Amino acid sequence: MSSIQPSADSGGEASPDAVAATPHASHSAPRRRPSTARAVAVLALVLVAALIPLLGPSAVLSGTGEAEAPGTAGITFLRTVMFAALCVQLGEIYAIRLARRVPGAPLDREPRSWAAYAAGAGIVAALGLASVVATGNLVPHQLSDMDIGGLYASRDGRLALLEVNAFIVALLCSRSRRPSTAALPLAAVIVAEALRAHSPVEDTPLIGTGLTLVHLTCGVLWAGGLLQVMRMLRLWRTFAPEAGAAVLGLYARVAAVLFAAITVTGVFSTLRRMPAGTVADQLTETAYGRTLLAKVLLVVVVAALALLARRRLRRATDPASAYSPARGEVIVLGLVVAVSALLTALPLPIRW
User: Fold this and answer.
1) Residue 107 pLDDT
2) Rounded-to-integer distance, Cα 350 and Cα 352, Å
3) Residue 202 CB: number of other CB atoms within 10 A?
4) Helix count (H) and strand count (E) of the chain?
5) Radius of gyration of the chain from Cα atoms?
6) What is the per-residue DSSP string for 21-36?
7) Whole-number Cα distances in Å, 140 to 133, 148, 157, 163, 255
8) If we measure between CA atoms, which residue out of 187, 215, 243, 192 comes closest to residue 336?
9) In this structure, is the dihedral angle defined by the CA atoms of residues 59, 64, 68 and 72, taken in order, positive or negative?
10) Is the confidence at residue 254, as pLDDT, over 50?
11) Are 233 and 323 in contact (CB under 8 A)?
């Protein structure tokens, strides 16, 4: 995979030579139009994403008769941070690889890398999740509550330690001369999450693990890739808007495949946990089903925004008009990440 190097010119201003080489860039680039309504909308969505770990468990469990496990809110928050860290790091690697396929893309002017910060956040989140496992899946109140050595004795403990170590290696890779090598330890985190989600005692755990592996990988590339592509568009729009639109178009074609894979694996995973005849009832009567329904509705919104952006992108007269729905797509995908994290912390539906 291609590497990501922070650019010394990442401030967003084009050099005089670059401007001179593209005299018409300023006419084709989108103008910045401050919008109070847009800022309020973004702030509201960010606030909702932050409240999902705090209020989500109680809201979806209300009236179901299911008990909330200790620390559900905290686990949801930590797993949200971990999923977001995966999206940021793998998204950078993936988007730069796409950009290298676009002739004339100004790869010497890349957005400043967030990989090291994301890896640090991933380490903290993975340590928090490991501490919960070390306490017997309870929230530790003091160091003496945790059995650190016991992590090596259980499957969940070993997977938790693997995730911590993988994020540490990813941090070291992000500060190296070849930051794209972080893809390997980050892939290990995804594998660990797929294994953790399916106990060996359930029916056909390998099938479930495989479905989760594909689902999570495609979701991370979809959300993280779009975030990084939008950062490229923002940086390049003053001196290379055509290259930015080309990268977005290339991402859109691959995203269609990712969306199809996410849909197929999501449907099969749901049917494994909810028999076809009970899906309608469990989507409204169980916490897991309600959260899954909320995730599906958000994905539908994302798909609608994606289609709008792709349709505008095909209009050669004004490809920059695709930027606005693509930005909305990034924001709603952030909500999907938070809801997905909540889904992993809730009790599994009962197979009727």
Assistant:
1) 83
2) 6
3) 15
4) 12, 0
5) 21
6) H-TTHHHHSPPP---H
7) 9, 12, 15, 19, 40
8) 215
9) negative
10) yes
11) yes
Residue linked to tokens 């729905």: 325
Task: Tell how far CA 180 is from the center of its chain.
Answer: 18
Contact assessment for residue 66 and residue 347, using Cβ atoms and an 8 Å cutoff: yes
In the structure encoding, which two tokens stand for residue 8, read together? 């010394």
Using a 10 angstrom Cβ sphere, with 0-12 exposed, 13-18 middle and 19 or more buried, the burial of residue 44 is exposed
Q: Closest Cα partner for 243 from 84, 18, 58?
A: 18
pLDDT tens-digit series, residues 265-305:
999 998 888 887 788 888 888 888 888 988 999 999 999 98
Tell me: pLDDT of 127 over 70: yes
CA-closest candidate to residue 328, choices 10, 4, 35:
35
Question: What's the burial of 143, exposed, middle or buried (CB within 10 Å: 0-12/13-18/19+)?
Answer: exposed
142-151, 154-163, 221-230, 289-298: least confidently modelled range? 142-151
Tokens representing 314?
A: 């095909």
- Gap between the Cα atoms of 314 and 85, Å rounded: 32
* Centroid of chain to Cα 218: 9
94's tokens: 């993936």
What tokens does 309 get?
């952006």
Alpha carbons within 13 angstroms on the beta-carbon side of residue 275 total 5
What is the DSSP code string of 284-344?
HHSHHHHHHHHHHHHHHHHHHHHHHHHHHHT-TT-GGGGHHHHHHHHHHHHHHHHHHHHHH
CA dihedral angle for residue 103, residue 106, residue 112, residue 114, rounded to 10 degrees? 0
pLDDT digits (tens, 9 = 90+) for 183-197: 999 999 999 999 998
Q: How many CB atoms lie within 10 A of CB 18?
A: 17
* Lowest mean pLDDT, pick from 1-15, 309-323, 336-350: 1-15
